[in-house]
Specification:
By secondary structure, this protein is of the alpha/beta class. Helix content is 32%, strand content 20%. The chain has a single domain, classed as Rossmann fold (3-Layer(aba) Sandwich). It has seven helices and eight strands; from the N terminus they run βαβαβαβαβαβαβαβ. The longest helix has 18 residues. 44% of the residues are buried.
Amino acid sequence: MLNDNRIRIITGHYGSGKTEFAVNYAVKLNKEKENVALVDLDVVNPYFRSREKSNDLSKLGIKVIGSSIKGMGADVPAIAGEVLGPIQDESFETILDVGGDPIGARALGRYNKYFKDGKYDMLFVINANRPETQTVDKAIEYLKNIELQARAKVTGLVNNTHLLKSTTKEEILKGQKIVKEVSKKLNLPIRYVVALEDVAKELPKDIEGEIFPIKMYMREDWMY
């Protein structure tokens, strides 16, 4: 059961797997709630953007909003005006997939007046195998920079330590140690521990954070 606030902001370093998490989150949320919207605010990274799966997600009944420049090949920093719709309309369960660095997080800043305490959650995705978030200090520095640019506070952490299909239980538990230290230092809860479905079954049931099994939507079989 996904008990986060109505507006969920997903952010993290490029390569952390935040978009894969955001897409899986949208699919799972769509099974629990009505009127789910996934907003792609990633105007920096030209690869693995959630709007690339708009056709598949739309078939499931998920509203996908991306660049105002139509066409997947358009790498233009433009954001559709309809973004405000699911942010303002409280009948929508809204997920915002934000650019994976502090510069990308600036796109979120223009909407910060809508992010009231208790009305939104901003989840910071950590992959402890990425150079910029492989230590506690580096992860905290990156998180703080994103908060500064986004003008919004992180409310929870997501352990998404992975090596694509080579990911093992041991890799995830290694990342969990770093995420737990970040959690302790910043007094932030670990909301989710992400793993491919077969690995998720191997994780200890008492792990801190909700185990979140995922499928690979953003990569074709030959890509991982």
